[in-house]
Design brief:
The chain starts with a helix and ends with a strand. The longest helix is centred in the N-terminal third of the chain and has 27 residues, at 2-28. The chain is globular and about 65 Å long. By secondary structure, the chain is of the alpha/beta class. It folds into two domains: 28-148 and 292-371, Rossmann fold, CATH 3.40.50.2300; 150-285 and 377-384, Rossmann fold, CATH 3.40.50.2300. The protein has a five-stranded parallel sheet, with helices on both faces. It has a four-stranded parallel sheet with strand order 7-6-8-9. A three-stranded antiparallel sheet has the order 10-13-14. Helix content is 46%, strand content 17%. Keywords: Amino-acid transport, Signal, Transport. InterPro entries: BCAA_transport, Leu-bd, Leu_Ile_Val-bd, Peripla_BP_I. Residues 30-379 form the Leucine-binding protein domain.
């Protein structure tokens, strides 16, 4: 009888030990962060700094002990800005790699291609794309870090209005970002009142000369200023054509070109143009009282020291996305997807490089138009205007 009891106790102890071992193994498993980015291709100026940022900070977080006592594992794919590839990679991240959260989607097209799968799989997704359609209307599992194109339009048109510029010539790319930016600019101008879009021109992604469109805008009666909404090579071409034509009207670009890389492409043709951007491009101009100053300065110095290249606002979107993911996982106390989603939605006062995020059930972006600063190109460099 005693032997049977002993054997039974030993059996239970063995089962318990196996169970504890399984729990320890599970606890030691890395937190898998999935990503698909346009690291190569025409949108590589977005995806390259985004990937470098995520790699750098995943390493840094892991050296500091990880999250919830677990290491982070970054699983990423290069979609080259192709929506079909993004869809396939999102599917792989969800079904094969079994990631806990996705931070990625350099472009609006790539992001929107992945959204249906994200929603079906019920996995938190933090997009790095700019168009308002990413989070408006609100999608339960989808969040984003860049300000929307609507916010950019609001900030630009407000600055124009303050300068007494009320008749706008609009030129925009026909891709997802440019098309959405055009729509939002037209809508905001109508709602603001006092601003009139008097010319409306577009260009394709493969176009190499936009002088015809700019000539049409310059010839429009009453036009006082020009706004280009686009990203990639297009805005740099528009800027050079603008200078070649000798147009002297005040010139604006969107946040889609807020990087030193754009200044290199546009050269002296960019002198005097304005655009909305995060304070990352002008950290020294921020007052000591600005809560973003230490965050911006730290990211800038760490990125440039690691990669020996200048920061861009696009890499900052990835920084904010990763840090929001980490905060949500800590807040949830686990990688349970529903708990992390709920934690993301409740984040308030999170100071990032792009702005201070205040998420809610009605706002999965958490930023306002005033998180944009207006910058002007002066002597080949960005200068803070307001």
């Amino acid at each position: 009888m005693f032997k049977n009891i002993t054997r039974r106790a030993s059996k239970f102890a063995a089962i318990a030990a196996v169970g504890m071992l399984a729990m320890n193994v599970q606890a030691a498993e890395p937190i898998r962060i999935g990503s698909f980015l346009a690291v190569t291709g025409p949108a590589s100026f977005l995806g390259d700094p985004e990937l470098k940022t995520m790699e750098m900070y995943v390493e840094k977080i892991n050296k500091d002990g990880g999250v919830l006592g677990r290491q982070l594992e970054l699983i990423h794919y290069d979609d080259a800005g192709n929506a079909a590839k993004a869809r396939n990679f999102a599917s792989r991240l969800i079904r094969s790699d079994r990631v806990d959260i996705i931070v990625g989607g350099s472009t609006t097209g790539a992001t929107m291609a992945a959204v249906p799968m994200v929603e079906q799989a019920q996995i938190p997704f933090i997009s790095l794309a700019g168009a308002v359609v990413v989070t408006t209307p609100v999608k339960k599992w989808v969040f984003k870090t860049p300000q929307t194109d609507r916010m950019a339009a609001e900030r630009i048109l407000k600055d124009m209005q303050e300068r007494g510029l009320t008749k706008v010539g609009l030129i925009s790319g026909t891709g997802g970002f440019g098309s959405s930016g055009r729509e939002q600019t037209l809508a905001v101008a109508k709602e603001m009142g006092g601003i009139e879009i008097v010319a409306d021109e577009t260009y394709g992604g493969s176009d190499t000369d936009m002088t015809a469109q700019l000539t049409n805008i310059r010839g429009t009666e009453g036009v006082q200023t020009i706004l280009n909404f686009g990203f990639g090579q297009g805005p740099a071409i528009v800027t050079r054509n603008y200078a070649q034509l000798g147009i002297e009207l005040p010139f604006y670009q969107s946040h889609g070109v807020a990087s030193d890389g754009f200044l290199e492409l546009a050269g002296s043709s960019a002198e005097g143009l304005r655009l909305p951007a995060s304070p990352l491009l002008v950290p020294d101009s921020l007052p000591e009282s600005d809560p973003q100053k230490p965050v911006v300065e730290a990211y800038k110095s760490e990125y440039e020291a690691r990669w020996d290249s200048k920061v861009s606002t696009f890499g900052a979107y990835a920084y904010d996305g990763l840090m929001l993911a980490v905060e949500a996982i800590k807040k949830a106390g686990s990688t349970d997807k529903a708990a992390v989603r709920d934690a993301l939605e409740s984040i308030q006062g999170h100071v990032g490089v792009t702005g201070t995020f205040n998420m809610s059930a009605d706002d999965h972006n958490g930023l306002q138009a005033d998180s944009f600063r207006i910058l002007e190109v002066q002597d080949g460099s960005w200068k803070l205007i307001n």
